[in-house]
Amino acid sequence: EQGTHYVDVTGEVPWVREMIAKYHDAARKKGVMVVHCAGQICTIDDLSLYLLAQKLGPLKQFREYFASSGDMTGGTYDTNIATFKDMTQDRLQVMRDPFSLGGKRRGGVRPED
């Protein structure tokens, strides 16, 4: 409402989807940038890809292989418990859909692929 950019570290896909549905149009009209999932594991990928594209120019493809070890923090554990307590069929579908936050591709292989 105030035209302030917003950055959040959440990784809760159903909540992010709800925020997009609720605020996307208004944020776009005001020129507000909203960044969800900042600081998640994908941040390393995003920054690496951005820097590669700046150095090498447009890339046809980016493929990464990633391995991780470790355990959940208490906050992540609590979030997962709360997410499953509030689970509905609609929220489950959002979690299963790899395009739920960014929209569907228009179809087929594109020239840049």
Structure characteristics:
single chain; 113 residues; mainly alpha; two-stranded parallel ribbon; 4 helices; 47% helix; Saccharopine_DH-like_oxidrdct
Explain what the structure shows.
The protein has 113 residues and is mainly α. The protein has one domain (6-96). 47% of the residues lie in helices and 4% in strands. It has 4 helices and 2 strands; from the N terminus they run βαβααα. It has a two-stranded parallel ribbon with strand order 1-2. Helix 1 (13-30) links the parallel strand 1 (6-7) and strand 2 (34-35). The longest helix has 18 residues, at 13-30. The radius of gyration is 17 Å and the shape is globular. The termini are far apart. The mean pLDDT is 83. One of its GO terms (cellular component) is mitochondrion. One of its GO terms (biological process) is glycolipid biosynthetic process. InterPro entries: Saccharopine_DH-like_oxidrdct (IPR051276).
Q: Measure the end-to-end span.
A: 38 Å
User: How does the major sheet shape up?
Assistant: 2 strands, parallel
- Unreliable stretches (pLDDT < 50, length at least 5) are none
What percent of residues are in strands?
under 5%
According to DSSP, the number of beta strands is 2
Count of structural domains: 1
Spatial strand sequence of the major β-sheet = 1-2
State the helix count: 4
Please give the share of residues in helix.
Answer: 40-55%
Mean pLDDT: 83
- Based on CA atoms alone, the radius of gyration comes out at 17 Å
Computed structural class:
mainly alpha
Q: Sum up the overall morphology in one term.
A: globular
Order of helices and strands: EHEHHH
